[in-house]
Amino acid sequence: MMQKVVYPFTEKDQEQQKLSVFTAEKFGEIEQIHPKVVQALQESNYETMTKIQKEGIPQILKKENIALKSETGSGKTLTYLVPIISNLVHMGTDQKITREDGSYVFVICPTRELCIQCEEVAQLVTKKSKYLITGCLMGGENPKKEKARLRKGVTILFATPGRLLYHLKNTNSFLFSKLKYIVFEESDRTLDMGFKKDLEEIVEQLTQKVSFEEVQKILISANFNDSVESLYLKMSTQTIKYVGFAKQK
Ligand code: ADP
């Protein structure tokens, strides 16, 4: 039997138990990662975590808002998808999750290619939990078809900024009242590409429509610069944890 590591959820637990936070090497060694997720990962030969996954997954499980920075190819996609999907599978076991609940997760990506690529990884991780529906909203697609899909419900949604904003404003049947996570993939690049205003409007829409302070915020970037920070400050008054880097001032 593999010894499992249970990550403490509060600083107090951590002090009391004197647990080392970063001892797990494999996805399957973290108690909170659902066995169905571990199994799906194993079937695609993902077993040992990369450095950023070892650091980032416990923080996301602790429900921290995080800024996660590490070089391309270091495994950032699974760093957020594994804990998020795992939490959804746990929730889905206690209280059934159905697609009619609408979106629990928004992942905002700067490009169509990144949306498609991230959705493919999400499909792999949800392989044993088919009730978690993934989907994309992307500039250049037929908005009517997207509306029809949104009406049915998309649990984990990957979207380019302009198209997400369009549906937030124009699609009454777009369900996201249960939104729990918002991920900004390549947030520095998204801002560099001129999507600042769209992102701010998305934040404004969400602030009006859901308890946005309670939505867990995850910012992924290659460079955590002032514009990424000011985007975060527009979203939350809570402190943000830096993963993969120490913030320089
Ligand atoms: P990043 O977003 O940091 O650029 P990706 O998440 O795209 O990196 O991952 C880069 C590559 O590493 C992908 O091909 C992915 O399948 C692979 N990878 C990620 N995590 C692991 C892991 N734990 N074990 C083996 N390969 C991994």
From TrEMBL:
Domain named Helicase ATP-binding is located at 57-242
Domain of life, per the record?
Eukaryota
Q: Name one GO molecular function term.
A: RNA helicase activity
Give the UniProt keywords, A-Z.
ATP-binding, Helicase, Hydrolase, Nucleotide-binding, RNA-binding
Tell me the first and last residues of the signal peptide.
none
Q: What's said on domains? A: The Q motif is unique to and characteristic of the DEAD box family of RNA helicases and controls ATP binding and hydrolysis.
Q: What family does the Swiss-Prot or TrEMBL record give for this protein?
A: Belongs to the DEAD box helicase family.
Tell me, what does this protein do in biology?
A: RNA helicase.
- The protein's name is ATP-dependent RNA helicase
User: To which species is this protein native?
Assistant: Tetrahymena thermophila (strain SB210)
